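Quick log. Single chain, no ligands specified.
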Amino acid sequence: MKGFIFAQFPNVLISTLNQPEEVAIAINPKNTNQIVAGSNLKNAYRSNDGGVTWSYQLLACNAYDVYGDPVMIWDTANACYYIHLSNPNSAITPGGTWVDRIVIQKSGDFGQTYTTCVGVGKNGSKVQDKAWPVINPYNNEMHITWTQFDNYGSASPLDSSIILYSKSSDGGNTFTTPKRISKFPGNCIDSDSTVEGAVPAVGPLGEIYVGWVGANGLMFQKSTDGGNTWLATEQFINTFPGGWDYGINGLYRCNGLPFTFCDLSNSPYHGTIYINWSDQANGLNDGDIWIIKSTNGGATWSAPFRVNDDVPGKQQFMSAMTIDQATGYLYILFYDRRNYASGNNTDVYMAVSTNGGTSFTNYKVNANAFSPNAGYFFGDYIGISAHNNVVRPIWMQMTNNGALSVYTALVNPLTLGIEDKKKDNLNAINVAPNPFKTETTIEFSLLKEAKLTIQLVDNVGRIIKELVTEKNYFIGKNKITINATENNLKPGIYYVAFYDGEKSKFTKIVME
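-> predicted structure:
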């Protein structure tokens, strides 16, 4: 399948078949032209030209079936894996029940065929949900973590959720008996007080790091002997204000579950552990993307850093993170509504850090905005993969009538921002005086005519006043004046945000 849409990065339509959502992608580190991807429930994709064109197949597993929550990964022996949930037919698999194990399918021919179908974690009828794997590049072991529910959806205090861990030392053919690595259980409701989002990472000495979230906040666990033993109890890292299960207009549901990665590159940040998540700590209408890091094996952690670099008060949500293990660069993908004065129009952004998470630059990735419909299931996660300056995000888009599609973009980090700057119509904003006492004037230049909405926003994202609503401005210099008395301003920090229906830009003003 081939469907180019030109944006800052060429967008490629991967598929519209079978309502694809909950997407995953993995670049082969040994050959970055080879990329595999997946989506709910049974969709498998592969590209042999770096993501320009894609083939499609329905994944099958006779013993355990294929029941969504896909995640893709490559090992060091050039095999790829498609990991998913189960829904076995009890006539074929006696004792099989809905989502009763994690299933690992392996391909040795670049995803053309998946010759193995291994089940892990069967424990009666308990639900085994949302696994995430990591490959140890030093010995090719696979480490995998997930959530076990005693009784999925139950509100009974007698039912609980826990985090489990297992590993394979033989290329995914067999796995160790799962170990419980969370001391503090969650409930089974599949919401804020359920322990979920357990993603493993490998450290420079083969350590296994795992982060997850639940009622106690963002938690961290580690093993220094290849997963044989773990800390006696998980460590608290940070609060999770508002919880990981939060509301976004236009979405059936949305979560901000964390992703954990460790830098194994030869960069100056080798060994740094990063955890990324999203939440609504700054308000129900102000979702943000966050990252926290540790440079000493998880003993201590930095303060959370806000990844999205827009004016406060807009929604960013459902992030995914990866590290390019050849360069140490961090890439975080997320949905974003910064470019629209109102409504549910949604873009896809990617934040990039080349300095170990000290700062991030944000780039718009998608070519066309979309407005989702909460009457249809949108999925719970997106994905991104990177290796040796080949970066491939993957995300879902939805039409207003609920039709879903899955996209990637051909990102070249060496040219990041070049096209974006060329297309920036609003290319100069000057404020004088700034700081000001009673009145300030904002001059801005346009390369072409534009219809702008301009808002005055306070330091926590509340709209003080819509100064201009879809007013036509001409090429060249334009200006607006802001009077403190007319707008009932008090000393403090404010933002002036410009929207043209496709992009946004803002400037900070200070009243003394």
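The longest strand covers residues 463-473.
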